[in-house]
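Could someone model 2-acetamido-2-deoxy-beta-D-glucopyranose with this protein?
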Amino acid sequence: MKSQFFSLALASLFGSHAIAQSQLTDIRDLRVVRNGSVLMLDNKPWKAVGANVYWLGLDENVTPPPGSPYYAPLHASYPSPGRITQIMSIINAMGGTMIRSHTLGVSVGNPLSLWPSPNQTNPEAFTPIDWAVYQARVYGLRLMVPLVDNFDYYHGGKYTFLRWAGFNLSRSGDERNPQVQEFYNNPKVVDLFKRYIESLLTHRNPYTNLTYAEDPTIFAIETGNELCGPVWGDMDVPTEWVRDIGRFVKGLAPGKLFVDGTYGVNRTHFGVEEVDIFSNHYYPVSTTKLQRDLEALASVDKPYFAGEYGWLGNAATADASLPAWYREIERNPKVMGDTFWSLFGHNVPDCNTFVEHNDGFTMQYGNPAHAAQIRIIRQHFVKMSQDLSISADAELPQVPCPAPTSLTP
Ligand SMILES: *[C@@H]1O[C@H](CO)[C@@H](O)[C@H](O)[C@H]1NC(C)=O
Ligand SMILES: *[C@@H]1O[C@H](CO)[C@@H](O)[C@H](O)[C@H]1NC(C)=O
Ligand SMILES: *[C@@H]1O[C@H](CO)[C@@H](O)[C@H](O)[C@H]1NC(C)=O
Ligand SMILES: *[C@@H]1O[C@H](CO)[C@@H](O)[C@H](O)[C@H]1NC(C)=O
Ligand SMILES: *[C@@H]1O[C@H](CO)[C@@H](O)[C@H](O)[C@H]1NC(C)=O
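Reply:
Sure, complex below.
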């Protein structure tokens, strides 16, 4: 399904040639749609398999060259175009079909954000997002985009909106404060959040001349990342809020699939018609927890997505937990896919240095230390996508650095 690339001349990246090409009938212009518990693309079942690449819109892992935009207090900078393109090339080489990326949607509260302050759009912050959406399209990949984060990381999240509305709350100190529910319940906060969503989805990408709402590359919008109430894991995300945000998103972007980003499967959300996909995260991978989630969802004719999972086993030895996890996913047709946590590449244009992230889950394609695990992941992706063009047992293909920004058949 990823084989139908059209020639996009390098010189035309900013010009009309790319736009004309994108108007051809092309699988990339077709939407991923839901039929009951199955996602479909081009009238065939489609699986969403890939990686979390949380930094595509805004990064925290690299000190950029002098003179580049940089917000030192949060170590925030824009990823280079070459880093973004290399990730698309890697997912392609791994047989993946999509990426889940927090900062394509969550970017509030610092000078480099889409919204540094309430109602204030920063046009510069759209550039890496535009590029990521365009490059995903070039490589035939799809994107799942969360709108807010439960935490208070460099890219902002629910606490940013709360502070903007006058609630002086932060994750350190207030995580268990019942007032955090004002994010969902306070009309002023909800309205500001909707204005933000609107500014994101109505933005027109100059590389494609499509708004994010229009572009089928973004196939799914997720309420948020790991949303909770005041108690960790309480899944206390008001049903009415999920419905309200779902209606708002689908009003602006009728073609998108809508993901319930509650941290866990909350049965009270099953009645929300606007939700297309339920999901959960797994640290560590757990087939027991996955089975529990799928049992909870058994009565609902909607698909399930394992949005994050961390694995610290040793692929070089006999640790079988990752293959067992994948077998469970592969055997249940209700699971529409999964995205592992989390993928990095080189610090392009420096092709000799990998970007490091400090959470212990960094996966670097091309790093010999990660190759055995990446091979297992790749076999799983190919099983899920049934991409016959990939021989999953072969050696991992080289991904060029820098990777091409356009592809010819
Ligand atoms: C949707 O799924 C049902 C069975 O679940 C099938 O009968 C029907 O043909 C499917 N529709 C499309 C458009 O694929
Ligand atoms: C943001 O803009 C909306 C709509 O114009 C307005 O109602 C609201 O008061 C503004 N909020 C802030 C915090 O500036
Ligand atoms: C917000 O709360 C912090 C810590 O609780 C406090 O130090 C600070 O002064 C407060 N800021 C405002 C504007 O009330
Ligand atoms: C971009 O799309 C808009 C809205 O569909 C259209 O009016 C405009 O002519 C397009 N621009 C180009 C360069 O094709
Ligand atoms: C699920 O959501 C409902 C409605 O918002 C909430 O009352 C409940 O605490 C949540 N958690 C569980 C486990 O149902």
